[in-house]
Amino acid sequence: MTSSRFRQIADDLRERVALGEFGDQGALDSESALCARYDVSRVTVRRALDTLREQGLVESRQGSGWFATGSSFHQRLALGTFRHAGSAVAESGRVMTRRVVEFGYRQASPALASALGLLPSDALHCRSVRTVDGVPLDLVAEWVPASIGARVSRADATDPGIWASLQRDGHQVASVRQSITAGIANADDAVLLGVQVGAPLLLVRRLALDRDHAPLALSDHRYLAHRFSLEVEFNGWPGAGADTPPGLRERRAETPDRPDDVPGIPTDDVPGKPTGVPRTPTDRPGTPADVTGLTTDVKENDS
Predict the structure, then answer these.
(1) Which residue among 63, 68, 135, 290 is least enclosed by CB atoms within 10 Å?
(2) pTM for the whole thing?
(3) Count of CB atoms situated within 10 Å of the CB of 19
């Protein structure tokens, strides 16, 4: 009983951390309070906490107790608007930094080239790890058509970032197509994000479009699920008997080919074509075999 009970407690604490229940400081309940809450012994509570510590989710501070390793950031969205994760971080009074781990030109896969409105050809590619106060938040893979990204340097990708650099160079983001689904960390994610293989991730793909609906950039974000969430505000309801929230459309799982160079991310919608479908990567680690996600079309209002 004790063996399964500590796992249940660890699962519950993991979810509470992700939901931001422990406030900005991330201080968990005391061990005695956790014993009382879950009606278990201190040994069981410590096994649960040790499990989360091994996963990089909590840490013990001598004389102070247990703390979540990095706060959970909740990005509030209203349908029809778009905000960057940096907004949520800035609102919390923290500082987000970017460490570029790959930068250069490489051939985009047919699926990515299609999403960017290109024939299969070279595109600017950048991978970076974003951290908040030194603690990893997400791993980002970005693609920009070579003709648009020619003036973006590695230093630009680090600060202020690729999207901000494109807008600096006169490429205004008019709208963003965003797809959200769930996944788990693969071996590469685990190394760069400092978690165990199999840690839950929030996968977000964003396609930036200009005023003529031409693609400007595509970014794939692999957020640590316990550190980031998206909160959507719905204004109004379609009417009595409707069972679908306004502004959302279901994406049904199918099994077409998927790009090899972006593990764990579903292929996004292509402007001017029918709604895309999430990939079902049964042959790759790091993502559930059958995923149904939600897609929203939003406009840029925060750079």
Answers:
(1) 63
(2) 0.60
(3) 12
**Rounded Cα distance, 27 and 20, in Å:** 11
The three-class DSSP label of residue 100 is strand
Max intra-chain CA distance, the chain? 62
Q: What sections of 55-95 are H helices per DSSP?
A: 85-91
Domain end call among 15, 49, 68: 68
* Tens digit of each residue's pLDDT (9 = 90 or more) over 17-36: 765 667 667 889 899 999 99
Tokens of 47: 């096994």
How far is 18 from 30, CA to CA, in rounded Å? 18
Residues in a beta bridge with 60 = 66
Domain count, the chain: 2
Any alpha helices (H) in the chain, and if so which ranges?
Answer: 2-18, 31-38, 42-54, 85-91, 110-115, 146-149, 154-158, 162-168, 187-193
| pLDDT of the residue at 12 | 84
pLDDT tens-digit profile of 173-219? 999 888 888 888 888 999 999 998 888 999 888 999 999 999 999 99
Question: Can you give the pLDDT at residue 241?
Answer: 54
Tokens coding 188: 């590469």
Query: What CATH number has the domain bearing residue 154?
Result: 3.40.1410.10
Residue ranges in the chain whose pLDDT is less than 70: 1-3, 18-21, 23-24, 70-90, 92, 119-120, 233-303
Given a contact cutoff of 8 angstroms between Cβ atoms, the answer to whether 222 and 203 are in contact is yes
Long-range contact set of residues 49-56: C-beta below 8 Å, sequence gap at least 24: 49/10, 49/13, 51/6, 51/7, 51/10, 52/10, 52/13, 52/14, 52/17, 54/196, 55/14, 55/195, 55/196, 55/199, 56/194, 56/195, 56/196, 56/199
pLDDT of residue 111: 73
Do 64 and 78 fall within a single domain? Answer: no
